[in-house]
Amino acid sequence: MGVIDLRDRSVIELGAGTGLLGIVATLLGARVTITDRAAALEFLESNVQANLPPEIRPRAVVKELTWGKDLGNFSPGAFDFILGADIVYLEETFAELLQTLDYLCSEQTVILLSCRIRYERDHKFLKMLRGRFSVSEVHYDSSKDVHIYKAQRASRKDDF
């Protein structure tokens, strides 16, 4: 896919779990909002504190985000990048995840999602994603069976 310069870019990680992706993005110079559901926040915050040097910790903020719900706590379209690692697995969350991506995106936002495509439901999510965004596979690691997809708002130039 090439090099992505995250310095001084605004990034949000969805469904962060341990926060590894958000921590790395912060270390690479981004201003990162690392999100997950309420039950994961204490562990997530402790990982951020333990793994970021004190001088750059202010660039990483841990916030609660339940997809499709707490959206009013975030500025719509305020992020340069939306990152998600292994967050496509519960079919009952797909509509809320798409609603969240739609809310957080501007025309310039780049979404990067890494996932395994294991079941028919995973293909269903990709179809749903393609219904709202322009989607391309930018990397595939065959040794781990992990795909990385890039998504952006579909170009509106056809509307004119």
Describe the secondary-structure layout.
Blueprint: E1 10-14, H1 20-27, E2 31-36, H2 41-51, E3 60-64, E4 81-85, H3 94-104, E5 110-115, H4 120-132, E6 133-141, E7 146-153
Parallel strand pairs: 1-2, 1-4, 2-3, 4-5
Antiparallel strand pairs: 5-7, 6-7
Structural features, described:
The chain has 160 residues and is an alpha/beta fold. The chain contains 4 helices and 7 strands; from the N terminus they run E-H-E-H-E-E-H-E-H-E-E. The chain has helices at 20-27, 41-51, 94-104, 120-132, and strands at residues 10-14, 31-36, 60-64, 81-85, 110-115, 133-141, 146-153. Strands 3-2-1-4-5-7-6 form a 7-stranded mixed sheet, with helices on both faces. Strand 1 (10-14), helix 1 and strand 2 form a beta-alpha-beta unit. Helix 3 (94-104) packs parallel to helix 4. Keywords: Cytoplasm, Methyltransferase, S-adenosyl-L-methionine, Transferase.
